[in-house]
Amino acid sequence: MTTTNEYQATTSTGRIANFVDSRVGASAIVKEFGRKIFPDHWSFMFGEVAMYTFVLLLLSGTFLTFFFDPSMAHVVYDGSYVPMKGIGMSTAMSSTMEISFDVRGGLFMRQVHHWSALLFVASLSVHMLRVFFTGAFRRPRELNWVVGGVLLIMGLAAGFTGYSLPDDLLSGNGLRIIDGVMKALPIVGTYLSMFFFGGEFPGEHVIPRLYSLHIMIVPAVIILLIVIHLFMVVTHKHTQYPGPGRTNDNVVGFPVGPVYAAKAGGFFFIVFGIVAFIAGLFQINPVWNYGPYDPSPVSAGTQPDWYIGFVDGALRLMPGVLGNFSFEWHIPFPWGTNTLVLSVLLPALVPAGALFAVMFAWPWIERWVTKDNREHHLLDRPRNAPFRTAMGVAGVIFYSVMWAAASSDLIATHFHVALNDVTYWLRALFFIGPILGFWLTRRICLSLQRKDREIVLHGREAGIIQMSPEGGFSEKHEEIDVYKRYLLTNFVDRQYIPAEPDAAGHVSRKEKRRAMISKFFFEDRVAPVTPSELEAAHAAHGHHEVEGDKQDSIEK
Amino acid sequence: MGDHSHGSPENSGTVAKADDVAQDRFPDPGLPPHRPRLADRDPRAAKRHERQVALLFTISIIGTLFFFVAYFVLGRLGEMSFAELRVQNAALGLGTAFAMLGIGVGIVHWAKTLMPDHELMEMRHEIRSEEDRQDAVEIVDTVLEESGIKRRPLIRNTLIGAIALAPIPAIFMFRDLDRTGNTAHQMIDSLRHTMWDKGIRLTRDPSGTPIKASDVQIGSAFHVVPEGINETENPLNEKAKAVVLLMRMDPAEMQISEGREDWNVDGIVAYSKICTHVGCPIALYEQHTHHLLCPCHQSTFDLTQECKVIFGPAGHALPQLPITVDSEGYLVAQSDFHEPVGPSYWERG
Question: Omega before B116 cis (within 30°)?
Fold first, then answer.
């Protein structure tokens, strides 16, 4: 290496920058990222909200660890909250009380932490919905979709392990339910519960164990996954919405420096500000109202944190006995009778398992059905993928019915209806709701696509009423500009692909199944307007061609 | 769909892209023309935006100062009433909110009004080039070849065996997560027993006073724990199994199965309070219907039919505690429960 013409900085800032640069090679990083282009759209913010609330969780959580003591040793409360003085509780509960009442700003930090956690899982979920409905998970981003799904599961794990730490009455009942679900697992369940609680429920060991998971293992995994997630975003470059000038080969947007960095960086402070506002004004998890954990009392109308709701709701929906038939099955074995607790196992594992299994597998399912293994960097407008949008809505309804069931008692008391009726309705909706949702959504998507066709072929309504020489009134339609027209006509037109023979000329059963699903998904479709159709429409004064020439558009 | 002969530095043509299929399509008109903002044309508007951004940053500074006021002036350590705490909490929140929103909104406003809003374009590059793939395959082959792992199956197979076995001790080390020192059999057995035994008095929870049969009126319900529960080694563990609901109803309304005829005292009955679904305490007793309701998942049990499940997710009836009265007229247990209390498990049978 020659030093004859090495760069010499003139200012002191420059000298420091040059010192660092010449030792770590920062120039290359600045060159790579300094003007990297990011597409801009409001729906891309949800992932950012998730990341920023996670940063808030780390900040507020670190503060809380300095004061929290996760021990389950018995103490008598002697802090400044008078109504609780003299009550026996665990050290964990007592130090939670101390953080709330005897550490200035401690209550604020607890509330920032809890609200951020709720927002973290919420923004993760909405971000995943955005990715799903726009088709951003398609090649090459399938693995990043999976990483995102694991992040969601880890978000739930973080929430659950943290929720139980104060050892108050409400979270203790949550643990009691976990204990019941664990014990329902065949063969290993009872031991698993004993290992988890260090003996019989509740024991004196579970809170410290949850604590080390909550502050060490789970956040470490989340940080690792976020790094992988962002690394892949850089590798793939961000997707973009379709539109004029945006192709599958380019990225149109704002450079990191200064615009994108300013917007994204500023957005962190906005998220922080909003969380601080909520944490200041809206009380959450007032453990001093619940009291310490005791296996005997429980208050009516208790609710888990929202993200656990769907599992809790599934538990409520399941009938334990139907007539004289019990879902607790007694199976006779040579060594004695064992119990298979289907009344707990089915609702606890099957709906959540099915939801996550379909979610993780969806990129591969879609690739298999559509035979589309191309790279996609342009997003779909949800209406232009009616099958996927309809499936997504079906999934959302499936989830929401279970979620609503977690509040079945509150629905009953607020709307003055019988609790049993609420449950019966929700049980029916659990099966019918997703089917109705699928059908309705697909019809809506197809209608919106037809509307797009009409706008391209007939132009937009100008809002000008014309009177003809005969005295008839009609609204004037104006042709849309080329940019809008390109947006409305440029999408992937997915079609039914009949079963195709393999190399040996044999049509396998798997291929036939694929063709069946393909037919189900793509039988009904609305093709984009082609230039020749528009020409024909203009020639015929554009009045009869809304549906297009069916034969013609499907042949293409 | 791949076409190797039309490669370019950004795109070798080996990976199909969604745009490649040529169709009867409208041509891409390219990016719409840029529309200048007010601040791009009018320097006075730009100056106004500049002042707005500065004002927002000033609001942030005021927010931070307000936080300190809330922290030191509104907070008096150790002697605050709950109302004062709430006020302080709200003030801390508002101070922080203004401090953060001032910065955030200010920066975003700055970026949107004063920084250039021309959209730029960049080409995507291939995620993996064919050239790289071939080089990588060659390297992997070389590594495998030099290590000799393919040529020497003895080494490979013993290594696989060793690696498969090595983590197993790490799993077994977790055996002592159970801190009771019980054997597997004792662990299962512990779930079958509670504190209740012949002659143990029923006492009120939490006061611990014993209950006379004459205290229990028709329609009333008592939350009951065994006498002496607070003197046990781990009262919460005992309580999690032994809590009982005590109720009295008209003996004429009760359906009593064979073998349970003497388990009640003139219509006074005791049932486990732990739900047989997933273990929540059953806290709600509806007097006129004689239904017990679990507030967690709404399992409903009918007291007149020996707490049979009539609605909700629970899979079997609540266990009944056989009771009688002792010589002083206090209610006592005849024995332990005849079946395990609480949620079902594999070994319950």
Answer: no
